[in-house]
Amino acid sequence: MNPMVEFCISNLANGSQKTYEVLERDPNIDVLEYGCLSYCTKCSESFYAIVNGELVEAGSPEELTNAIYQFIEENPLW
């Protein structure tokens, strides 16, 4: 079972698309996008994704990519 990373389509449009594209190429991560994840305040203020059910956020798409990989490393599924 791979880690699951979920993105809000509005946050993708705001800039986290770069992170989405990096993660989508990783065969060890499952990436999904949704119309809304109900984190509207976070969505308008930062870049974020839901990783295995937990909110991960950062100030830039590059920082978000790093934060997601770090979260996955520090919180293995098994």
Largest sheet: 4 strands, mixed
Q: Detail the poorly predicted runs.
A: none
SSE pattern, N- to C-terminal: EHEHEEH
- Give the CA-CA distance, first to last residue: 9 Å
Strand order of the largest sheet: 2-1-3-4
CA radius of gyration is 11 Å
Summed over residues and divided by their number, the pLDDT gives a mean of 94
Q: Supply the number of helical segments.
A: 3
Share of helix among residues?
Answer: 40-55%
Overall geometry comes to: globular
Beta-strand segment tally: 4
Q: Which strand-content bin applies to the residues?
A: 25-35%
What class would the helix/strand composition place it in?
A: alpha+beta
Structural topology:
Layout: E1 4-8, H1 9-24, E2 30-34, H2 40-45, E3 47-51, E4 54-58, H3 61-74
Parallel strand pairs: 1-2
Antiparallel strand pairs: 1-3, 3-4
Helix pairs in contact: 1-3
Could you name the key traits of this structure?
78 residues, alpha+beta, 4-stranded mixed beta sheet, 26% strand, globular, YuzB family protein, DUF1450
What does this protein look like?
- There is one protein chain.
- With 78 residues, the protein is α+β, with helices and mostly antiparallel strands.
- Helix content is 46%, strand content 26%.
- Strands 2-1-3-4 form a four-stranded mixed beta sheet.
- A hairpin with a 2-residue loop joins strand 3 (47-51) and strand 4 (54-58).
- Helix 1 packs across helix 3.
